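Checked the freezer inventory, then went back to the computational side. Two predictions to log before the end of the day. The first one is the construct we discussed on Monday; recording sequence and tokens without edits.
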Amino acid sequence: MINAVVGEMPESRAYDSRGTGLQHHGGMHHRHPRTAARSSSVTLRLLALLALVAALVTVTSTAAHACKCAEMTPAAAVANAKAVFTGTATAARVTESGPVGARAVYTFRADNVYKGTPAARYTVTTNVDSAACGYSFTKGTRYLVFATSGTGIVPEAGLSSGSCAGNRPVAPGTGPLRPTEEGPPGQAGPAGPVDAALVAALGSPTRVSAMSPQGVQAQPARATATSLDWRWTATGAALVALILIAGLTLIIRRRRAARQS
């Protein structure tokens, strides 16, 4: 009688002696619904947490690699530049991606040259991305441009510039810059307006003739600090997030299919 009772106990109780949440029905083991639901919930929470971490990595990597410019006096901006001039942006294009990434190439019709070989036209290259310290010039707008030697970056562009160089939009015209001169509406730049300190650092310009055929004389490129390519980091983090989301979706579909069956 005792042996009969003992022999029937594994078939009637819901959990085994180890508390594993397994039910015995006809010699087969089935996971208890509560245990399966708890396991599914933990998995979903873990995947959601990983997706959140991947998204945070994307945001923080973008912010960490954003362009940051050190404060620079007008005199230092002029001293660091190969060419300083005022001119109107007349053309713009983007080169194909190369060793240094895609570059924007701008052509300027100069009117006054404050430093460098005077020329009626200058071609300046800059990074496409503002996060990589690229400066976006607007076609038809007049600028005060600070440029360094850019030989070798883009063959036809002898000069290079960026958002930390001191470039700024200025009022239309062809005359020398005057203190407190503001740029055109809606075109304010991070460098600010033209003030007395900047005009003093620029000195007297050379007026350029519109018929001058030569461009600025290119000099050997100097070693300059390059910004890290944050786009690869951001792209990798985004791919991780997409993979996690796809995995989460697949698990949910399998759980639903299992419940329906």
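The second is the one RB wanted added to the comparison set:
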Amino acid sequence: YGGKRFFGWATFGSGVVTLLIPSAAQISYTALIAIRVLLGMLQGVTWPAMFVIWSRWAPPLERQKLISLNFSGSTLGIILTYPTVNILCTIVENGWKYAFYLSGGVTIMWCLLWYYFVYETPSQHPRITKLEKMYIRNCLKKHLPPEE
């Protein structure tokens, strides 16, 4: 199993579990804590999985810039989520629930795009050119197994 699958399934699972948070909160504190622990476990594998993906895609001289850009997406998500949640909680009765529904739903939709656009290795990707594949392979040949 490669980074794409681990990251994709963990992120998809996080979206599904996020949708369950309002129900868990209404059931009991214990249910909410259990859901949050599960969410943490799912999200815990995403960062290492991303490093696996970048190790197969990012040439060493470009890796730092690409990884920084990639992980800044988490910060951007937070920046966009806080005002959105504030608006939901202000204008919708029980808006706090919809904050989780929106977040979980967007995460699940994002996963569909992820599975379409992301490939485990450059050699598997049908939409990049041979020249791009050669460039990546040549930059990473010391770091990858021969079949990649």
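For RB: The longest helix spans residues 60-91. The chain has one domain: 3-140. Let me know if you want it refolded.
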